[in-house]
Amino acid sequence: MPQKLVQTQKEEQTQQLSAVQVAFARLLELPVMDLEERVRNEMDDNEALEEAGGDEQPEQEQPDTDNNEEETDGELGDMELPEMDDQTADYLSADDVPDYLVRQNNAQEEREIQISEQSNAYDELYRQIGEQDLSERERAIMEYLIGSLDDDGYLRKDVYTLTDEMAIYHNIDAEDENVERMLRLLQTFEPRGIGAKNLQECLRIQLENPELKSVAKPTALRIINDFYKDFSLRHWAHIRQRLGISQEEMEAALQVLLHLNPKPGSGLNESASQTAPTVIPDFYLSLDEDGNIQISLNNGDTPDLRVSRSYKDTVREFSGKGNQLSRAQKEAYIYARKKVGDAQLFIELVNRRKQTLRNVMGSIAYIQQDFFRNEDDESFLVPMTLKDVAQRAGVDFSTVSRVTGSKYVRTAYGVYPLKFFFSSQFTSESGEELSSRQAKIALREIIDGEDKRKPYSDELLSKLMAEKGLPISRRTVVKYRELLGIPKSGLRKS
């Protein structure tokens, strides 16, 4: 059959992103440390942009350009930003724009996060020594104690042994009382639990941290102090009976205990460059005395910005004079106006970034408020998607994706990536909407309570989950079990 060419015509509606939208999208993606570098680079490139001094407020002016403001729809349609003369109109999305055009429009270049190759946890402990008012001898004792920590962060030698070793091997004349005092001081360092002689003391030190605020804290301390053996054997019912507390009080105490770190020194010998980079939270979340959620944005060392007064004066001086200007004055006017416009636009983008981040984080906190108000108990997490957050924040779901892609929030119980709060929806037999994370929690509870001499098979686990009102297939059980890092039944047998 002979081939032939056929020409057809089709009408199609597409969304085109301007350079301003591309620049804003890239700013949204940046975590706080990269934002600092981005702002510093912009200040180096544009001399009309400078750090706001002392009493002066950062400016939030609209760019002085000849283009009209135009409302945009689509991916970033929640913004009203001025258009710029650009070469990106032929590209359908930010990902399609070539890097050289992105750079020309003041967007962020792809770059690797710079990580110190020399910083480790020991350096952090030594740094904390410098925060204390210690004599030369006390400092020498403290450094020896830190050097005597094992891989888990424990100090398993007794005070008398430490005193003898310092005198014999390092010529440090230290009395037992001084060593004990320095040891107690070391146990107040971060991470909490450093310098404990065993796991029980490690958990007690963390519970006695004044920054840990929980109504279940006294109960958790009693469990560690008075019923540690039962705790290590997971005899929860016996502990609850001895304490004379309700099941809810017991569960609250266990939630506090499960958030503690049994190996606070696990990373002492690992360089920061050999592990994951240090996480800098982009948000801080806390509860006030009335239980209301408070959110603050971490701006790090990012400076407040303003437009240079000399450049603005130049624009005002030459504006409207037209033919009265010499050629050199016209060139100076055009240059100054462009720099001022770029500076004002960048300030506006940074301010819009802050507002968008607050809106998205506020929406996440509202949807997951039960989790934050119940001491970060994962069982209180509800199903949540990008669309859910986008609808509440009043932005497009792709904007939420950019905000949550590489950012973290710090709460009283830890630092979480924003992606942690998203999970798919699961419907129980009763019709209740649950998150897949809650199903995983239920599966772990079943496996933890099994007889290890006869562990449950995946088929039986599926049936037991159904009895709990969570009908999931055997294949899903295998998937969740592997995600939880739980081996199959044959390897759990003991």
Keywords:
494 residues, alpha+beta, Arc Repressor Mutant, subunit A, 3 domains, two-stranded antiparallel ribbon, 21 helices, 6% strand, DNA binding, sigma factor, nucleotidyltransferase activity, DNA-directed RNA polymerase
Characterization of the model:
- With 494 residues, this protein is an alpha+beta fold.
- The protein has three domains: 12-108 and 278-377 and 404-414, no CATH class; 122-258, no CATH class; 425-492, Orthogonal Bundle (Arc Repressor Mutant, subunit A).
- It has helices spanning 19-29, 32-45, 99-104, 121-129, 136-147, 159-169, 176-186, 199-207, 217-226, 228-232, 236-243, 247-258, 309-318, 327-367, 369-373, 386-393, 397-404, 436-448, 458-467, 474-483, 489-492; strands at 49-51, 283-287, 293-297, 305-307, 408-411, 414-417, 425-427, 433-435.
- Helix 8 (199-207) runs antiparallel to helix 9.
- The longest helix has 41 residues, at 327-367.
- The radius of gyration is 30 Å and the shape is flat.
- It comes from Alloprevotella rava F0323.
- The separation of the N and C termini measures 71 Å
Number of domains: 3
Structural class: alpha+beta
Number of helices: 21
The radius of gyration over CA amounts to 30 Å
How is the biggest beta sheet arranged? 4 strands, mixed
Shape: flat
User: Which regions have little confidence, pLDDT < 50, spanning 5+ residues?
Assistant: 58-119, 271-276
Number of strands: 8
Question: How much strand content do the residues show?
Answer: 5-15%
Q: Element order, helices and strands? A: HHEHHHHHHHHHHEEEHHHHHEEEEHHHH
Helical percentage: 40-55%
Mean pLDDT: 78
What order do the strands of the largest sheet run in, or round the barrel if closed?
3-2-5-6
